[in-house]
Amino acid sequence: MTAKDAREELREQIFEVLNEVAGSILANQKIEADTEFPETGMSSIEYLAFIEKIETRLDVFIDLEENQDLTTVDKFCDLLLKEVPSA
C-alpha cells in the first residue's frame, strides 16, 4: 500500500468516526478534509467523544495537551501517519 493509499484509508476512517459522533450536525454541511471542526458547530463534548473513538478504533493514544491543533481531518491524518506508521 502506498503512502497516498494509507492516507486515503485513514481519512475515510476518520470521516466515519466523525459522522458517528457528530452526524446530525454534519448532515447539512459539506465537510472537507481541511474544514476546521469549530466551524462545523461541533461541541467540545462531541470532539472528546470523537477523540475517544479514534483512539479505540485505531488503538492509539492522542495527547491533547501536546496536540492542541487537531482541528481538521487532515491534521489528524498527519499526526496519525507520523505517530503510527501502520495506521
Automatic annotation (TrEMBL):
Domain called Carrier: residue spans: 8-84
InterPro entries with a match to the protein in the record: ACP-like_sf (IPR036736), PP-bd_ACP (IPR009081)
Pfam families in the cross-refs: PP-binding (PF00550)
PROSITE patterns from the UniProt entry: CARRIER
Residues of the signal peptide: none
Protein name, as recorded: Phosphopantetheine-binding protein
